[in-house]
Task: structure prediction
Amino acid sequence: MATRFYFDIRNGEQLYADKQGIELRDEETAAHEAMQSLLSIAKENLPLDKHRLLAFEVRTDEGPLFQVSLSLVITRC
Result:
């Protein structure tokens, strides 16, 4: 039986709630989907001059499950 997972996006201080979610087989599949999607988003949203945290805060109708995050940093010499 599939479960509906919601992938709220955190971009720095901003949190964008996923209102639709998607039905997936299990939590492991949801984690894989979150990681793949996060890498795709990161490719298009590189920080210009400061630290940026991108994350999916994954939840079900029952509540929060886990966070998948990626920290993007440009360090100038």
